[in-house]
Amino acid sequence: MKADPAAQRKLLELAKVDAELNRINHRRRTLPELERIGTAEREVREKRDALVSAQTSLDDLQREVDRLESEVDQVRSRQQRDRQMMDSTGSSKQLEDLEHEMQSLSRREAELEDDMLEVMERREAQETDVSHAREAVNAAESELADAQHSRDEAVADLDSDEAKRSAEREALVSGLPEDLLNLYERIRAQRGTGAGFFQGSRCGACRLEVDRAALASIREAAEDEVIRCEECGAIMVRTKESGL
């Protein structure tokens, strides 16, 4: 293939822009903010799970307190009823039975109140745990939001750079011969780099030196001949600085 030497030299600019676009895409995939977000998301899930567990334990303790309060109320209601019966009864036998029941109810009330006090103390401690767990969730969510904000800023910068480079690329390809551009694009798609500067005896795309026979052939080639590297297949662009 033949192509105007000036058009071939433009391929070096195009390859430079493409390399920058590749770096931008690589940077986009490997942003440190992405790893930070992943870590923060795992932390948020763990902290939320811990909060749910702590809240569930607190709810269980509250139900236990409610149950004990209900039993205490029942005992006190029974005591109140027995007092009324003691005040109205004239039977010594019934009075004695009521006194025994009152003693049992008093012991039961004391036991329930002791149990309730112990559960209420545990509930108070669990409320502190829930508060700490909620604070941990808020802190983790804040860290995630910060990481996402940093990611968004980094992506916005990359988008801006990409837009500039893409505009430069459009301007470059619009002035290239179609057959030369198609060859460049095909090589780039297959090998990653479509063209490189040839200097001395080295391909600028793969950085490998050509052998003596190939070098002699390159020196003899017409200025408009499109030369390709035997190693990487890239177009080797010759300029006055190539040293041929």
Automatic annotation (TrEMBL):
Residue ranges of every copy of the C4-type zinc ribbon domain listed in the record: 202-236
Source superkingdom: Bacteria
Transmembrane segments: none
InterPro entries: CT398_CC_hairpin, Oxidative_Scav/Glycosyltrans, Zf-RING_7
Region Disordered: start-end pairs: 54-106, 123-163
Chain intervals with Basic and acidic residues compositional bias: 60-85, 94-106, 123-135
Pfam family, one: CT398_CC
Domain CT398-like coiled coil hairpin: 14-192
Protein name: C4-type zinc ribbon domain-containing protein
Origin species: Actinopolyspora biskrensis
